[in-house]
Amino acid sequence: MTGLNTKEEELFEFITSGKIDEAKKLISSGEVSVDCEDKEGMTPLSSAAFKGSEELAKLLIAAGADVNTKAHKHGYTPLMFAALAGKPELCRVLMDAGAYAQKSNTINKTASEMAAFVGQHECVTIINNHVCIDEVEKFLHPKGADSEEQFPVEFVRFCHGLTSSHKIHPVAIIFHLRENSIHLERSKKILWVVDRVFEKQLRCKEPNEVMSMKLWLVLITLRETFKFIEERMKAGGTMGPIRNKADICTAYAKYMLKMEPEDKVRLNLDRHLRGAIVAFPYRQSLLFETMVKAMAKTQFGERPSAYEYIVQALFGQRIFALNKFCSTCGGPGANKRCPTCKLPYCSQECQKFDWAIHKKVCAAIAERNERGEEEMGEGLGDGESPRDTVDEREGEEKETVDVDDVKVGIEEVDIKK
Ligand SMILES: [Zn+2]
Ligand SMILES: [Zn+2]
């Protein structure tokens, strides 16, 4: 017998019949348990995955649904249902949320094996090329429960989050560290795990270049942030009263965002990102070569910024052209703007965070805009009035610059592999 109440039975009906709005209302009403089970052991998330509904799956995950539910009578996980339904993007959503890919059902088949069996090859590729939480778990607990060191599940999830996130902007990563400063006591372990995941990616028969580059950028920002924290902790009194790691993260984010009226880009940030790209260890990568060549066209200190190049290379021209990126955290869809200079921000928090720095440079940026120079922090396109700036930029190039010129301005970063 199932323990479903009437509302929960309704929820399953809405999910099965694709009534997304009604299902949404019920989930947010709090009248249903997100992990309730029907008599087959299906949870709402399993049902949403079975129906292939990415929207509902995201909603249920956000409401706290268990992505690794063991309730199903044949041991089917939501990821298996998504794979059988042939929904690669949904598979990705579930794995980003920590779904284990190596789990098997009662007849010992994993999600990827099941997808292969029913011919859902795109799902097989997605599952096999994704940084899964299994991988992170294996590095942290090589002998499972018998491993020498045992880490809390929140820590495993935190490390997995760092390796599977699409947030590669240094300030976004620093903000994430600040919010999770409880884990910073284990900074060496965090670095070690992300490094292992990166190395493993490189050793693949067919390394995924985009994923490798993303992991590398995350790794470098983590490394530099931890170095900064360590130095500040050691300096203690002489460097001021900052002792707490979350506050040091704030200080480092401000350092990254530093800007003077004459600056066209945030110099510390640009130096950091250019340095990271140049230090990428997988030299034969085509992506690396393309990025270095593109970036060499712009002198250090000029626009487009390193981040603009990175977004184009990793996420594609289309995403780049259709979005504005937050001037603070680099997040896409930044629809708020500084009223004076039109610099884009994703949220009020980001705008507030930047204000102490921005108020000194706002007038100078506004003036440069007036003179028709490029707006800071914008994508090559403009959501409201699409412009053809890609071509304009190409027209601006006066000369070809040697590849080595990307290194200009990075001598101060000491990035060692
Ligand atoms: Zn932001
Ligand atoms: Zn402004």
Give an overview in words.
InterPro entries: Ankyrin-MYND_dom_contain_2, Ankyrin_rpt, Ankyrin_rpt-contain_sf, Znf_MYND. Its main location: other. ANK repeats lie at residues 40-72, 74-106. With 417 residues, the protein is mostly helical. It folds into 3 domains: 6-130, Ankyrin repeat-containing domain (Serine Threonine Protein Phosphatase 5, Tetratricopeptide repeat, Alpha Horseshoe), CATH 1.25.40.20; 131-257, no CATH class; 280-417, no CATH class. The protein is 54% helix and 1% strand. It contains 20 helices and 2 strands. The protein has helices at 6-16, 20-29, 44-50, 54-62, 78-84, 88-96, 111-117, 121-129, 133-140, 153-164, 170-179, 187-203, 209-235, 245-257, 267-278, 286-296, 306-315, 317-322, 348-370, 389-396; strands spanning 336-337, 344-345. The protein has a two-stranded antiparallel sheet with strand order 1-2. Strand 1 (336-337) and strand 2 (344-345) form a beta hairpin. Helix 1 (6-16) runs antiparallel to helix 2, helix 9 (133-140) crosses helix 12 and helix 10 packs across helix 12 (187-203). Residues 376-417 have low confidence and may be disordered. One zinc ion is lined by residues 326, 328-329, 331, 345-347, 350.
